[in-house]
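In the laboratory, one determines a bound structure by crystallizing the protein with its ligand and collecting diffraction data. In a computational setting the workflow is compressed into a single prediction: the sequence and the ligand go in, and a structural description comes out. We illustrate the idea with adenosine-5-diphosphoribose.
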Amino acid sequence: MKTQVAIIGAGPSGLLLGQLLHNAGIDTLIIERQSPDYVLSRIRAGVLEQGMVDLLREAGVGARMDREGLVHDGFELAFDGRRERIDLKAHSGGKTVMVYGQTEVTRDLMDARQASGAPTIYNASEVQLHDLKDGQPSVTFVHQGVSQRVSCDYIAGCDGFHGVSRQAIPEGVLREFERVYPFGWLGVLADTPPVNHELIYANHERGFALCSMRSPTRTRYYVQVDAGEKVEDWSDERFWDELKRRLPDETAERLITGPSIEKSIAPLRSYVVEPMQYGNLFLLGDAAHIVPPTGAKGLNLAASDVNTLFRILLKVYREGRTELLERYSEICLRRIWKAERFSWWMTSMLHRFPDADPFSVRMQQTELDYFVSSAAGRCTIAENYVGLPYEDIE
Ligand code: APR
Ligand code: PHB
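The predicted complex, in structure-token form:
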């Protein structure tokens, strides 16, 4: 088998890159370890930056998002007994975010890929990458008991944090930066109307809480839990009680509870690998970086990596600009580090850390107070939340 770009992983990064390249007439093969149903069963975040919304439209997969997604002009910060609204639109020159679940984005991309006839191999095992630096790169895998090899020009490693692509890079090439936070998020999905028409991020002495949503009838709520907590120890009743205790009184009184459809605990981590390229292999999305979910940046960073690699590959195939390939990593990392900073800052400001003394608690409250009391502070939060601009590829 032969293709131009072999894409490892059919998560949002791999599928979006595949769609954009396919539309541009560049051949791709996507190789995914899991089944389509398994990929769609993962519940992840649900806030899309303007740049990602535009990219999905450009890829021709924005129709359902535009019909069913919820455009949000702002969100709320609750702390110290206060509720403060950040007006995203007013403080970012008119930008907004779109609330539309990652699962739905993935479903739309899968449907578009199937309709386009471009090939995806699901349930591939023993995926291995070869000849990344010298000679012609190739990927081998086993599918339905048969060993296969696909040779290609480039490999896009879109296989998430635990994938093979990053591990295929020889030792000593990559530098890793990591912070593991001493807590996780317990998330519940429920068919209940949202407690508020916008998201609420709450700093509370019992720990962080977030009220989010997927639609006018489906909610996604989170509470901070200690690292090592087990989801089995959290009945629905215990979850709702804890959530209510962390919300401002008038919000807690309005909260409508119901049976959970999904409940899981996610650890919080910041992680970046440098560089994001090795020879003809490029890392995208979770394969190269992780952010804690507090700024809703994970999926959006994946989209900006896709945007960068797509624009570079267009110029490579159409204009022979192969020198641009060397710039992929530096262009991505500039934006990634800024999103890492914002996610780390939101996480640091809103969670209760196990070693927090009264001084650090006052510092958190004062920092939040300072930011929301100042136009510059509100602008800083807004421009990061709606997403910093994508760099042009000249
Ligand atoms: N071979 C082939 N596919 C693999 C392999 C492998 N060895 N290992 C993992 N995969 C697949 C996974 O099954 C998954 O479908 O790669 C895909 C990676 O998808 P994601 O983890 O969703 O990563 P990505 O597409 O980069 O999405 C960005 O943003 O908010 C975050 O974590 C969130 O998933 C989200 C991410
Ligand atoms: C979500 O809806 O799952 C969500 C929203 C905002 C975040 C994180 C997760 O910051």
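The domain at 5-70+100-177+268-357 is CATH 3.50.50.60 (FAD/NAD(P)-binding domain). Keep in mind that any predicted model is a hypothesis to be tested, not a measurement.
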